[in-house]
Write a structure and sequence with these properties.
The structure is a homodimer of 421-residue chains.
Chain A: E1 4-9, H1 17-29, E2 38-41, H2 45-49, E3 53-55, H3 61-65, H4 89-101, E4 104-111, H5 113-129, E5 134-139, H6 155-176, E6 183-188, H7 195-199, E7 212-215, H8 223-237, E8 240-245, H9 273-285, E9 289-293, H10 296-300, H11 307-325, E10 331-340, E11 343-351, H12 376-382, E12 394-395, E13 398-399
Helix pairs in contact in A: 1-11
Cofactor (chains A, B): Mg(2+)
Protein name (chains A, B): Pyrophosphate--fructose 6-phosphate 1-phosphotransferase
Subcellular location (chains A, B): Cytoplasm
């Protein structure tokens, strides 16, 4: 009997991570000679440590197929890193205990760079612990900061949502600007890389509108220079859209969104780059403004997912399985850009070592010399990733996202306490 | 020769106000015996006072037809109220001067309760000034607070967007809650009425998820009671979605979003009910949380507009014209709910007097006794308004929203300065 396969989700989830899950599930089932059952761990690696394992054979097949269009992490995700094998051997002993108890031969971990490090640790654990297990990464991150791969599943859909709502909200601001709001500030995610902020500029592709200034995570915020650009834009166009990365930095490299402790106001203000920037603009220019923070909404907006992104997420899930069938181990599927116009892509593999805990920033040459926009090269890179629509089914006016039952396998191992601090 | 018609947009714009514009334009052109040309004022009544009038015959017919699926106010809107006719007679003299110069016989004003007051003043002005003009209101507001009409065009689409993103973001929070975020706070619009916050509860229609607490604009915020409900929800479900109206009130009736001036911190914090609430929850419970503010995005989200809303907005525009053809004056089309299940609606008329400067709040019986949810009656009222999808055309991965050229008619009147303070 072939050994079973276990799939788990890790880190911040996306609009399409479940499409990867479905790709893995479908492909495992397509290879009964290589795999026994397909299980899913609840809440990522935590579910393995806790022996919380879902038997997907117990789920409604229609619900599983609906994973392709359901946002969030259907099996639960986690923010948890495995310790160093020398420092925390008991974690690894526990993993082997659980893998052995449920005859798991392959582990698929769907996440970003940090999760690839977890997958790598598990891949390396096998020999050491006398329980060989294949560990495969499946790429996912809205931050688009995974190395080697041309883009990361999850990013394209978040980018499409951001570009769409920027185009729409800009029309709103433009309508109001002569007697009301002149500045609209939108905060998007991206602690370290400005990819999502850059995607906002795609809103300009149709007719060069709206006038926009982008403050990237890569930028050290120069207040005077920014206000000068803002005032000049408003003079010329009457209004301005400002897109700010949550990761915008102060000149000293600290996060802009966290107010400095102040001699007079001995308190720390809650983060939020947009409200802080809005306050600054209002104080310094007096312009009427509105601001928005899309937060989780941008990474779960499956209703406006990019078709390219959905297909790539699904393909990465399938390829992870097919790589195992072909005899590979300790790899992550990557997306290759075979041609840009027309956009053609294919799937390749990269060793987990090349992506584990590596962060791939946005190239400096993607930012215009003034620091507030993106170059044509950036547009050429980004545009293909948001192409195509892939609407979920709607019922009663809303997208229909079935929830898995998630019944756990009976436990076979003793309890184990995970320290999550 | 019949006199010309003039259309203008007023107040905060919506995802479907341009569908009403297209309804007016198409219907006026369908009645050449009753109307000459159809014009649009730039930036609402301000454009009339400034004699900034767009000849729609100069626009590309395809661009005009695309108004049906384009958000924002295509002709520009304004926040401006006409003065009292006795105090500001020169404003009314100016209106007559411009109407006369361009032979305007009918004025259509597309807005909310305040704009209906402007329309009413213009309707009454005619006799007084010796220049009879028909003034017709066309309803619009995402706040759903217009009187007499069963619902307001613009509300259904904003409600559909909110319910959709709440459903999606909730799946995200649910995925993360065991090791990360347990509370997601979303701020929606609504200074005086909690209609938009109530719409978030439609996200629960599919399977009773997610666990949610709503803080309505009608609510006086009871911090202890709220935190108790929050903790209980998290104990039971592991996480909680909190939806807060921007108009949430402190126990003393002041706005929650504006921090009270403080003895120590002699400053006023910028508004934002969500970040304030997030700070409070973090301080008092220690739960990890995320927050979002959708602001203009919720009222311009044409990509996920309600089909019912689009059709009603368009029908109200057409009906405004058809009422004039039938001999009516000084009225506003209203939406009547003829049956709830199945939902059937028709268009009626109401005199401007009945809607001018009237605000229709949410009935108290739509809020559950504990104050944090909506009743079945509210669900039955809200559900039909978000039904159906009406996606705009997409190009290059993004919705395609053509912009009108907006070339102004040559001026025939002397300049006039409008005091907008």
């Amino acid at each position: 009997m072939p050994q079973n396969a276990l799939y788990a989700q890790s880190g911040g989830v996306t609009a399409v991570i479940n499409a990867s899950a479905w790709g893995v599930i479908e492909a495992v089932r397509a290879h009964p000679a290589h795999f026994g059952k397909i299980y899913a761990a609840r809440d990522g690696i935590l579910g393995v440590l806790r022996e919380e394992i879902i038997d997907l054979d117990q789920e409604d097949p229609l619900t599983l197929a609906a994973l392709r269009h359901t946002p969030g992490g259907a099996f639960g995700s986690c923010r948890f890193d495995l310790g160093d094998p020398d420092q925390d051997p008991e974690q690894y002993e526990r993993l082997v205990e659980v893998f052995r108890a449920h005859d798991i031969g392959t582990f698929f971990y769907n996440g970003g760079g940090g999760s690839m490090d977890t997958a790598l640790k598990i891949a390396r654990m096998g020999d050491r612990m006398g329980f060989p297990i294949k560990a495969i990464g499946v790429p996912k991150t809205i931050d688009n900061d995974l190395a080697v791969t041309d883009s990361s599943p999850g990013f394209g859909s978040a980018a499409k949502f951001i570009a769409t709502v920027v185009r729409e909200a800009s029309l709103d601001v433009e309508s109001m600007h002569t007697s009301s709001t002149k500045v609209f500030v939108l905060e998007v995610m991206g602690r370290h890389a400005g990819w999502l902020a850059a995607a906002a500029a795609l809103a300009q592709e149709f007719d060069g509108q709206p006038p926009m200034l982008i403050l990237f995570a890569e930028t050290l915020f120069d207040q005077d220079d920014f206000l000068e650009h803002l005032n000049r834009t408003i003079e010329r166009h009457g209004y301005c859209v400002v897109v700010v990365s949550e990761g915008l930095k102060n000149p000293d490299g600290t996060l802009f969104s966290v107010a400095q402790s102040h001699d007079v106001y001995a308190y720390t203000q809650l983060g939020g780059a947009a409200p802080r920037l809005a306050e600054l603009i209002r104080e310094q220019t007096g312009h009427k403004l509105h601001w928005a923070v899309v937060d989780y909404i941008q990474r779960s907006a499956r209703h406006i997912a990019s078709k390219v992104d959905v297909e790539q997420a699904y393909a990465c899930g399938r390829a992870a399985v097919e790589g195992v069938v072909a005899g590979e181990d300790a790899f992550m599927p990557i997306i290759r850009r075979d041609s840009n116009d027309p956009y053609r892509w294919s799937i390749g593999f990269t060793p987990l070592e090349t992506v584990a805990d590596v962060e791939q920033g946005m190239p400096r040459e993607y930012i215009t010399p003034d620091g507030y926009g993106i170059t044509q090269a950036a547009r050429d890179y980004l545009r293909p990733l948001i192409q195509g629509e892939d609407a979920p089914p709607f019922d009663q006016g809303l997208p229909c996202y079935p929830r898995i039952r998630g019944e756990l396998l009976p436990k076979r191992c003793p309890p184990f306490e995970v320290k999550t601090d």
